[in-house]
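EI: anyone free to look at a 116-residue chain?
SC: sure, send it
EI:
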Amino acid sequence: MSSGLIFAATGCLLFVLGLGGVLLLKALLRRILAFNLMGSGAFLVLVGLAQRDGTPDPVPQAMVLTGIVVAVAATALALTLARRWQALTGREDIGRVGDAGSRRRSKQRERRKAPR
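SC: here you go
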């Protein structure tokens, strides 16, 4: 078993673990970390399979390096948005879309229906 194949198999495992985390976890920070784990797995697969005749191919390595830079910037943006979400809603998980707004509207309807 070559080292490239070991890198690719480890990358596939990391990708599957990250995908499971994105789909199963509710906490926003944990989802962001799971998404980063998926990206790391994809980078490992690209580096592991980027060989021609036993020598490393520089083009996929350059793509992985560019992808790492983009992933760091996207993670910073996601963490900023997560902090903003927590500051606005007071919650650290996503829940259902429109959940907070529907509660607010139902409370307003109850107030309108209440006798004065």
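EI: The chain is about 80% helix and 5% strand.
SC: 👍
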